[in-house]
Amino acid sequence: MTLEETLRQIVREEIATVIELLTRPKIEAEVLDSAEAATFLKMPVDTLRKRAAKGDIPSFKSGNLVRFRVSELKAYLAERKR
After folding, report:
1. Which domain CATH number covers 57?
2. Cα-based torsion angle of the residue sequence 46, 47, 51, 57 in order, rounded to the nearest 10 degrees
3. For residues 81 and 76, what is the distance between their CA atoms, to the nearest angstrom?
4. What is the domain count for the chain?
5. Residue 59 to residue 37: CA distance in whole angstroms
6. Tens-place pLDDT, residues 37-78
7. What residue numbers bound the domain in which 76 lies?
8. What's the predicted TM-score (pTM) here?
């Protein structure tokens, strides 16, 4: 696969992700997955996952999945503004 083909594939995948996020119904959930929490915090998912793994961002495990409580994320944002 050439560099151009690789870049095109990456762009396609990113566009598909954005379309999925934009078309996803808005649910006022109390618990978010990584993609939803990253959108809420306006940061890349990879950054969110790394910070959550280090304990910088509040999270909890639900089976093998990492989840985020909206109330804890709001408190996290409020604390960062201080």
Report:
1. 1.10.10
2. -100
3. 9
4. 1
5. 10
6. 999 999 999 999 999 999 999 999 989 999 999 999 999 998
7. 3-81
8. 0.64
